[in-house]
UniProtKB/TrEMBL annotation:
Gene label: COMMD2
Organism: Bison bison bison
Signal peptide, first to last residue: none
Record's protein name: COMM domain-containing protein 2
COMM domain location: 123-190
Amino acid sequence: MLLDLSEEHKEHLAFLPKVDSAVVTEFGRIAVEFLRRGSNPKIYEGAARKLSVSSDTVQHGVEGLIYLLTESSKLMISELDFQDSVFILGFPEELNKLLLQLYLDNRKEIRTILSELAPDLPSYHSLEWRLDVQLASRSLRQQIKPSVTIKLHLNQNGDHNTQVLQTDPATLLHLVQQLEQALEEMKTNHCRRVVRNIK
């Protein structure tokens, strides 16, 4: 699977062949540090002074490298696919090897950092349901009033919690139809592209 880099990202990465390999290695270290601790404008300014370029140019170069490394790590692309993705950029062979080494050295750490940044949402554990039907009351002798009670068990951070929901069958049927429609929508090409870019 090849990375699909936009023209903007290609422009940001175009700065890398203009600098020494030691600078690219330092940019890689800054990129991983950025993921760990966040942005530090002083680092960009210091590197810009040493290289005699604007701090925006350095920042864009590092951000392009961050995007390249995070997307590659997220998708767990192979060495060959990474080389092919970088080859498209038209960099010298030495720089391609350096970027590959940066990726191989840091992909596990980047995946760990990205997994820590991901929101921890509740996950499904089990479901219990009950159908209640009220056939009569003191005021109405003949009535049929069904209701569905659902007890949803969820896991979050190793804790179990329970949500109790109650609805009538018509609303439940509508909810099921909407969920089935959403599942069908997920099979469209547009949704697949969106999900691929989110991951």
